[in-house]
Amino acid sequence: MNILVCVSKTPDTTAKIDFTADNKEYNEKGKQFIMNPYDEWYALVRAIELKEANGGEVTVINAGPASNDPILRKGLAIGADKAVRIDVDSRDSYHNAFQIAAYAKGKNYDLIVAGKETIDFNGSIFGSMLAELMELPFISYSSKLEYKDGTATVHRDVEGGVEIVKVSPPFVLSAAKGLAEQRIPNMRGIMMAKRKPLEVVEAVEAGERTRIQEFELPEDKGAVKMVDPEDMDELVRLLHEEAKVI
Amino acid sequence: MILVFAESKDGKFKKNAFEIALLGSQLAKERNQDCAAVVLGDHHQPSELSGYGISKIYHVNNSALNDFDDFAYRDVIAGLANELGANTVLLSHTALGKALAGRLSVRLEAACISAVKGFENTGGQLRWVKPVFSGKAFAHYEAVAEKSVVSLIPNSLSVTKAEVSPEVEEKDVEFNKSKVELVERNVVTGKVPLPEAERVVSAGRGMKGPENWDIIEELAEALNATTACSRPVADSEWRPHHEHVGQTGIAIRPNLYIAIGISGAIQHLAGVNNSKVIVVINKDSEAPFFKAADYGVCADLFDVVPKLTEAVKRFKADNG
Ligand SMILES: Cc1cc2nc3c(=O)[nH]c(=O)nc-3n(C[C@H](O)[C@H](O)[C@H](O)COP(=O)(O)OP(=O)(O)OC[C@H]3O[C@@H](n4cnc5c(N)ncnc54)[C@H](O)[C@@H]3O)c2cc1C
């Protein structure tokens, strides 16, 4: 199986969220960046497992500047065979999907995988855009995938449970928790990653379709109101009269 | 023209259908446009969408559309949007909306802004407000295309009725189906699904084990709430995976979130910090969750949860 895994770079899950003085951009100063967890733990690891079981090759791809290379190297250390970076400043999901579709078209990947969303913009739209651009079937929020005799049986998370679907490659899939277990790269993987190819390709002409005009932090909640554990009637009264939620 | 896609299940509207209709009608008013709705598959009563400000309901009454299929839904919604000359298509940010929005936007050559909580009009320029960084900030988005596909996080608007009685028109739109075959659906029935729940009772590792969940279920029942849990609880299989909220689980924004025996790790808060009111019950006064809470009770949960359930029952008995 030849599998393309789309990975992106996000601030660490515990990174402080603040913005540049004009509130137009995330303040990257002093921040730790990681591979988006859904891309790393679920999409990439399941792709490597499928390759281990069925043969083939796993390629990690990112559309972004050279400062994203460490993310791709990490993908190689975890077990991808090669990496591709499309050299461009990424702008929005559509712009990213368009770049990656332009690269992937005609390369006959059996499977293209990405995380269900990125933990910075929480869009959940990249995978379905890519699928439409590639004219391929798409399975969103997949928490399990089994592949046998040319058919994949996939669980997709829906409200209150799962739907089980069958589909034959090629298709696009977005990965959720459950699809695989996180793999920590070992020393050998890290050493080998240095010798694996990281190809930089030129971007194609494409525009963005959305623009962020401003970021804003949520209002301060104010201090918590502590309620006497012996007086739950008081809590119910507050929830009814003050908070108006019951 | 604004077109809203109103989701249904088993021939009935989902709660988010009324919410998306309301968003459509609010936007229509703001822009002085009309707003139509599209309903797919067998349906008992499409006119139920009356009174939410929609001026027309298109019902594509074809049982091949009963189950979600992204190709078919794309074809029908994009086909209708093009026929009506709609410049905005609104969906709910549900499992279905997440699977469809991107595809639909590419087909319509539209901007795609997903998971918004509403819009604002800044000097004639429409901006969509969207939680980002897992609920830790908001971004104000503008479309830089003529058309937009926008999805709304469930529970973002409180649904009120408006006085419009739209006409229902049966409509045929051509579509193709994808090569994805649905073989089984395994979902709990009869419960309000977590993302749509107005009240949520959630519990964590402080519960000690799955055998202790009766007190959580009882409180949830008294409040007419849906149950949720923290990640280690789902990982240990004390509770089903679909109850897991947070960064790696699902993100919710109920009116009331009661967190019981949950420490309030940043990755847990990522899924619940947009709840309107948060109550925390924890025996450790230093638990980080108290900082994110509106109301707190510092006590042993095994002691205080049954007392809270009794108090809710008393309140309900007194207030009919
Ligand atoms: C990248 C990443 C993603 C993650 N994603 C998620 C996610 O999506 N969702 C999530 O929930 N977690 C997530 N986590 C895990 C998260 O960091 C915490 O470990 C987890 O939320 C802790 O769960 P908990 O609060 O139930 O358990 P604990 O942290 O063990 O807290 C138990 C709490 O119960 C209290 N308690 C114990 N006994 C009692 C009692 N008798 N009465 C009252 N209170 C009591 C304790 O004081 C404590 O505060 C993620 C972690 C990482 C690194």
Description:
The complex is a heterodimer of chains A (246) and B (320). Chain A has 246 residues and is an alpha/beta fold. Chain A has a single domain (2-220), classed as 3-Layer(aba) Sandwich (Rossmann fold). In chain A, 28% of the residues lie in helices and 30% in strands. Chain A contains six helices and 13 strands. In chain A, the strands form two sheets. A nine-stranded mixed β-sheet of chain A has the order 9-8-7-10-6-1-4-5-11, sandwiched between helices. In chain A, a hairpin with a 2-residue loop joins strand 8 (151-158) and strand 9 (161-167). The longest helix of chain A is centred in the N-terminal third of the chain and has 18 residues, at 37-54. The radius of gyration of chain A is 21 Å and the shape is globular. The model of chain A has no long low-confidence stretch (mean pLDDT 96). Chain B is of the alpha/beta class and 320 residues long. Chain B has two domains: 2-170, Rossmann fold (3-Layer(aba) Sandwich); 194-318, TPP-binding domain (Rossmann fold), CATH 3.40.50.1220. Chain B has helices at 15-31, 70-84, 95-108, 214-223, 231-235, 266-272, 301-318, and strands at 2-5, 8-9, 12-13, 35-40, 56-60, 88-92, 111-116, 118-122, 125-132, 137-143, 148-152, 167-170, 181-187, 199-203, 226-229, 256-260, 277-282, 295-298. In chain B, strands 7-11-6-1-4-5-12 form a seven-stranded parallel β-sheet, with helices on both faces. In chain B, helix 2 (70-84) crosses helix 3 (95-108). Chain B is globular and about 60 Å long. The N and C termini of chain B lie far apart (44 Å). The model of chain B has no long low-confidence stretch (mean pLDDT 95). The chains are: A alpha/beta (246), B alpha/beta (320). At the A-B interface, helix 3, helix 4, strand 7, strand 8 and strand 9 of A face helix 2, helix 3, strand 7, strand 9 and strand 10 of B. The structure holds flavin-adenine dinucleotide. Flavin-adenine dinucleotide binds at residues 204-206, 230-233, 246-249, 261-263, 265, 267-268, 271, 282-284, 287, 300-302 of chain B.
